What we know:
Layout: E1 7-8, H1 9-16, H2 20-28, E2 36-37, E3 43-45, H3 47-61, H4 66-73, H5 79-110, H6 114-124, H7 128-143, H8 150-158, H9 169-182, H10 185-203, H11 212-227, H12 237-252, H13 258-271, H14 274-287, H15 296-308
Antiparallel strand pairs: 1-3, 2-3
Helix pairs in contact: 5-6, 5-9, 6-9, 7-10, 9-14, 11-12, 11-15, 13-15
Amino acid sequence: MDGDTLFTIGTLARRTGLTVKTIRFYSDTGIVPPTDRSPVGYRLYDIHALARLDLVRTLRDLGLDLAVIQQVLDREVSVPEVAAAHADALEVQIRTLRLRRAVLRAVAKRGSTPEEMDLMHKLAKLSADERRRLITDFIDDTFGGFDANADFVDMMRSAMPELPDDPEPEQVDAWVELAELAQDPDFRAAVRRMAQYQAAERAQGDVTGLHHDLTETVRDGVGRALDAGITPASAEAAPVIDALTARYAQTFSRANDADLRLWLLTRLETAGDSRTERYWHLLAVINGWPVPPSLAPVFTWFTEALRAHTPAPEAGSGAGKGGDL
């Protein structure tokens, strides 16, 4: 093509696919000024104007506004600089759209009311820092002021909800439920009682920390009893309880007697709120961790069996007071 060739607006429109009106607008605003005019006043454009117009169309298709495009054309900013900034902005928009999609799918699955949908949207829009702050505030409120089990508190503080940039509807749903749970006054009061219980145990000298091995022992022993169809109050449950109380006595350096069983009942009842387990299960869903099987049936059986096979406390006995989780 001859570099001296001049094109009319109509020719540019046919070559670029833009409308004559659009090209005229670009020309009037100085984005793609005419190279010359015909003897009768029609605008004419050279090959450089055509290339400039192609660049403008490409940048517009990528979502850049005219002010930024003018800066690029005037060489105030480079194309790589603009591309990087625009890519960052698009990334934010993409994350927002993905989050909205997940919220809408969760709403559809839940059959939420307009009020619930509004709450879900607000909670889902919280930043990662805001989500952590909500959970941190919950932990500070429930464990603050108590010398509770340090290992347990550290475990809670290390397990923060990390909602991914492209969450599944189940993760959004779990985050909303966790946020509601953490702000539930009744649940906060229950966890605060648990913290107070832990502090009382520590005041009595218990610094044993977490007891994962003990939990596994209960899971195995009670699991076999459940599989065998042994009911908590039956005579067959007594050996199971005897073995477990012996293990607790060993772990906590206590006598394996009636007072231990009363202490253990208080411990189990204090820790037996099903919402506590739900809290950890929701965190697992949000963070994409494996969701552990529920221990509720195991500890429900253990509590009922222990109660059935524990003698009533003698008058004036202080057994069962204090404790730790």
